[in-house]
Design goal:
elongated; alpha+beta; 20 strands; 3 domains; Cation-dependent Mannose-6-phosphate Receptor, Chain A; disordered N terminus; five-stranded mixed β-sheet
């Protein structure tokens, strides 16, 4: 019988399905930003796009921005790098007429060894969605509007491009990992690559009967986290149950993570992994969704049958324990040599395993 405590979870699942809610997966590149309303703006399609600015003063060199890659000046004397965009780079929401701000660091060191944070030459690119404020390069698919040198070691670039449309709203600060201080599955509200869909290489082994997932969130927003929902594909063959503080909807925080324990038991062997889709509804945000994959090999299913037989024999007072040992040994021999057996030999061996029981 279905208990009343599960009714809100079922209703939530139906609502999410009706709305077509999808998980927020981390973009394929690090060229993305979260705006002031926590919506993701993905600029991955612009990575490496080249924008050039020809000098208006003979004293200044030309400048080029390879979007989300690097900034450099170009002159007859050669190229000078003013910073690179890497995984730890600065890409945030701007203010006023500037929509977004990018930071490029670790440029050429010559004569800039003692520059800002000792990062060599650096650049700040102020991204404007739309056209240049000064009316430059009308009709172009983006261009550099203006360049200002703060010093020989730092430059400010004003860049106008047609910005990408807003993506889903991200529940910032939320993490899911295999340790209270790790975030292999979800980081900053975004599902990490490897858990956004089914991967055989990321599957849990047949022998692993449970896994513990630790969840954290910003304390002031933790009450928005609701009970997780699971869906198993295929529906039959893998029994899954949730337990722990994370299964009850207890608010997780950074200092007090909640734990979601996934207990699963193989009932039917498959050549492909089972998919366990985990959805964590977040009030006012897109739900957190990720996929755990679980292998159920034939070998484990037969071992479960042996355990079942062992239990039955023990219940009968141990009269067949000696037979069980012979059964177990015969099974191991048959299993190891299965590929080299003929069908007749295999059937004979399997018959021996039943031990006249």
């Amino acid at each position: 019988m279905m208990t009343k405590s599960w009714l809100p979870v079922i209703v939530t699942a139906l609502v999410l399905q009706a709305l077509g809610a999808v998980s927020v997966v981390v973009p394929s590149s690090n060229c993305y930003v979260l705006d002031n309303s926590s919506h993701i703006v993905d600029f991955s399609s612009w990575v490496g796009h080249n924008f050039e600015y020809e000098r208006k003063d003979q004293k200044d060199p030309d400048l080029a921005v390879q979007f989300c890659k690097d900034v450099e000046t170009r002159s007859q004397a050669g190229y000078v790098n003013f910073g690179r965009f890497d995984k730890l780079s600065y890409f945030v929401t701007g203010s006023g007429q500037v929509d977004f701000v990018q930071g490029y660091f670790n440029g050429d060191l010559r004569n800039c060894e003692l520059s800002y944070d000792k990062m060599g030459r650096t650049a700040q690119v102020n991204v404007i969605c739309g056209s240049c404020l000064n009316g430059e390069c009308k009709g172009s698919p983006g261009c550099i509007c203006n360049v200002t040198y703060e010093s020989t070691c730092r430059v400010f670039v004003e860049l106008a491009i047609p910005c990408e449309r807003l993506g889903p709203r991200v529940f910032e600060g939320f993490t899911v990992g295999f340790h209270p201080r790790s975030w292999e599955i979800v980081y900053n509200g975004m599902t990490q690559l490897g858990f956004e869909k089914s991967y055989r290489d990321f599957s849990f082994t047949t022998e692993q009967v449970h896994v513990a997932l630790y969840m954290t969130a910003i304390a002031s927003l933790s009450n928005l986290v609701q009970k997780p929902i699971i869906e198993v594909l295929p529906e039959n063959g893998l029994e899954v149950q949730l337990s722990g503080s994370g299964a009850t909807g207890k608010p997780p925080t950074t200092l007090s993570p909640t734990v979601l324990i996934v207990d699963w038991r193989c009932e039917k062997a498959l050549d492909t992994p089972y998919e366990v889709n985990v959805t964590i509804p977040i009030e006012g945000y897109e739900p957190i969704q990720f996929i755990l994959t679980k292998m159920c090999a034939l070998f484990f299913q037969i071992l479960q049958n042996i355990d079942r037989i062992k239990g039955q024999m023990q219940q009968e007072g141990g009269l067949h324990l000696e037979c069980y040992r012979a059964y177990s040994l015969s099974f191991q021999q048959c299993f190891v040599a299965e590929d080299s057996f003929t069908k007749l030999e295999w059937n004979a061996c399997m018959g021996l395993m039943h031990c006249r029981a």
